[in-house]
Amino acid sequence: MKISLLKLSAIGLVTTALVPLPVLAKHHEAGEMTVIDVVATNAALAAFEGRSDEDKARDAGRKPAEVLAFLGLKKGDAVLDLIASGGWYSVAAAIATGPEGKVYAQNPAAALELRDGAYEKEITARLAANNLPQLERLNSEITDLGVPDGSIDIVLTALNFHDVYNGFGAPASTGMLLAIKAKLKPGGVLGLIDHVGDPDGDNTATHRIDPASAVAVAKAAGFKVERNDELLVGTNDDHTKNVFSPATRGKTDRFILKLTKPE
């Protein structure tokens, strides 16, 4: 979907035991060790005044609360929305992690230039409408993300990875995941969402990826892999049609990989 925006970024990508006890105590007091409650998070997303009716309508298909809970998001976590595009997921994650957390909505320059700057306009408007101090734009490249190594609890990238794999192959894809892995805390998670592809089909033409290929790359990058094919099931998707075709758009089967960095 975003080969042009990922091209520049893909090139060149070939213990809590030490934390002071007062910090750990504060962490527990804040309730940050508990994964977010799906019902409460969905209620917060529905009630948040800054979100448009259109953005709220997307919750039914994208299931942000359920996805973030599957990835293990806790209140107060630091989140990086990688290639955030218009920032829809960034806003959802910021509401879910709460005011004590931090969310970075990252986009490379090429993403913000696509379609005459459509994503630039969209994310600017969405962040202005949603007054969330914990949400920060991050205009940076994947090769230089602009956040410290070992500082992020959850990285999320939605419907982007197929372009790296299809356009540049497994080595560049592994390099991308290694770059992301460096930013995660020990035990941190990369959530990778993408369109389910046909193992024997032309996934480049359809803008999809075979989940088994994504799993293989994730394992090569040293992640522990958990795969979920049930949460984001589409409607009558046979995995052979272009994701942008009118009959398929917004209705694809999507898989989620929960990729955990070893402690």
What does this structure look like?
The structure is a single chain. The two termini are 33 Å apart. The chain has helices spanning 3-10, 21-29, 38-47, 53-57, 59-62, 64-70, 88-97, 109-129, 161-183, 203-206, 211-220; strands at 78-81, 102-107, 135-139, 152-158, 184-195, 224-232, 254-260. The protein is globular, with a radius of gyration of 18 Å. A seven-stranded mixed β-sheet has the order 3-2-1-4-5-7-6, with helices on both faces. 43% of the residues are buried. The protein has eleven helices and seven strands. By secondary structure, it is an alpha/beta fold.
Keywords summarizing the entry:
single chain; 263 residues; alpha/beta; 7 strands; disordered N terminus
Show the helix and strand layout:
Elements: H1 3-10, H2 21-29, H3 38-47, H4 53-57, H5 59-62, H6 64-70, E1 78-81, H7 88-97, E2 102-107, H8 109-129, E3 135-139, E4 152-158, H9 161-183, E5 184-195, H10 203-206, H11 211-220, E6 224-232, E7 254-260
Parallel strand pairs: 1-2, 1-4, 2-3, 4-5
Antiparallel strand pairs: 5-7, 6-7
Helix pairs in contact: 1-8, 1-9, 3-6, 9-11
- What is the first-to-last residue Cα distance? 33 Å
Question: What would you call the structural class?
Answer: alpha/beta
Mass-distribution shape: globular
Strand fraction band? 15-25%
Count, helices: 11
Helix content, binned percent: 40-55%
Q: Would you identify the regions where 5 or more consecutive residues have pLDDT less than 50?
A: 1-32
Q: What is the strand tally? A: 7
What is the chain-wise order of helices and strands?
HHHHHHEHEHEEHEHHEE
